[in-house]
């Protein structure tokens, strides 16, 4: 594993302002001290109690969804042994009660784990962004970012990818990020894609105790892995589709992240295309799969201005650049076919 590239605050990297060109490079970057000016970070650096008190002053809105696991799982939010279920329970609770429980468990050598993930900040901490926010105007689509809070004790979230670009900001506690480039997918031994822990498929390899006899290709993934440990005030940019494991290393941890897509809102998730391809293409005879691979290359992956240049613009239909109306027409056409 190699360290993730770092930027420190300078003329090229201002506090809370995403540097221009960073997103276009599509490479992970650690931004040291990027949110050190946040009052929430100052509280997190002071003490866990100060962090809880500060978040409490930001207001408590809707209950939060909590993943709760027994001490035996050692903080690893994961499947059960035979992949028929999960090793944690889901429950809802008020955020102040969750934070009080985490403080009460501090110092326990092997506590139960509590993990609050991907919770919209405006819903549960409506006053947070008034004094703790970022300028993402330099990122295509960044102005429409979804801001979420993640909170818990010592937990491990298995390697997974996110479709949006991700800027994760450590606010309290320390977190270790281990990243793998998208092309390492075959070496990560990904689990089910339609039965997931929290929406995204995850690697079945335990990074803390990898079994190379069972997962021999994972050694190649590790050779391409990048790692960094972040402290309160640090942030990390994780490009779309990069696999990442996130470990919370302390008894109390808070992270705030910004998700945004560089594509227009009328574009559906590519996961829908993957699911349809599994239903329609994967089990075809090999020669037909190769033929369809060529079709997809021509119309999708290698498409350019020449693809439909021989068709008059008014007659290109779905081969024309996608518009909101075109996307709506395509969606209706697909639903029609699926309902047959």
The Rg value, from CA coordinates, equals: 22 Å
Query: Strand order, biggest sheet?
Result: 2-3-13-10-15-8-7-4-6
Proportion of helical residues = 10-25%
Oligomerization state: single chain
Number of strands: 15
Could you give a short account of the major beta sheet? 9 strands, mixed
The CATH architecture category of the largest domain equals Sandwich
CATH topology of the largest domain: Jelly Rolls
Domain count: 2
Class by SSE composition: alpha+beta
Straight-line distance between termini: 50 Å
State mean pLDDT (0 to 100 scale): 94
Order of helices and strands: EEHEHHEEEHEHEEEEHEEEEHHH
Low-confidence segments: none
The rough form would be described as globular
**What is the tally of helical segments?**
9
CATH homology-level superfamily of the largest domain: Cupin
Classified by CATH, the class of the largest domain is Mainly Beta
How big a fraction of the residues is strand?
Answer: 15-25%
């Amino acid at each position: 594993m190699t360290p993730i590239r770092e930027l420190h605050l300078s003329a090229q990297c201002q506090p809370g302002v995403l540097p221009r060109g960073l997103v276009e490079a599509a490479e992970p970057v650690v931004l040291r001290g990027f949110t050190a000016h946040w009052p929430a970070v100052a509280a997190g650096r002071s003490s866990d109690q100060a962090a809880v008190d500060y978040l409490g002053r930001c207001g408590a809105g809707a209950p939060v969804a909590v993943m709760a696991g027994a001490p035996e799982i050692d903080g690893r939010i994961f499947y059960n042994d035979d992949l028929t279920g999960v090793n944690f329970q889901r429950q809802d609770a008020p955020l102040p009660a969750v934070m009080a429980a985490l403080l009460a468990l501090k110092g326990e050598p092997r506590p139960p784990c509590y993990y609050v993930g991907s919770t919209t900040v405006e819903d549960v901490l409506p006053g947070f962004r008034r004094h703790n926010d970022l300028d993402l105007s330099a990122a295509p689509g960044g102005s429409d970012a979804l801001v979420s809070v993640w909170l818990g004790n010592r937990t491990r979230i298995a390697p997974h990818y996110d479709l949006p670009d991700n800027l994760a900001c450590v606010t309290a506690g320390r977190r270790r990020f281990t990243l793998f480039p998208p092309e390492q997918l075959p070496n990560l031994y990904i689990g089910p894609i339609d039965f997931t822990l929290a929406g995204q498929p995850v690697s079945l390899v335990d990074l803390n105790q990898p079994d190379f006899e069972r997962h021999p290709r994972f050694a190649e993934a590790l050779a391409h892995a990048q790692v960094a440990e972040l402290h309160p005030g640090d942030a990390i940019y994780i490009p779309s589709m990069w696999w990442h494991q996130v470990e919370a290393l302390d008894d109390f941890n808070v992270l705030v992240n910004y998700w945004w897509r560089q594509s227009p809102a009328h574009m559906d998730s590519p996961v829908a295309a993957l699911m349809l391809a599994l239903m329609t293409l994967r089990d075809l005879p090999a020669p037909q799969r190769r033929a369809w691979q060529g079709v997809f290359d021509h119309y999708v992956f290698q498409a350019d201005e020449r693809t439909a240049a021989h068709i008059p613009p008014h007659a290109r239909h779905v081969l024309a650049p996608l518009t909101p109306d075109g996307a709506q027409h395509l969606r209706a056409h697909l639903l029609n076919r699926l309902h047959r």
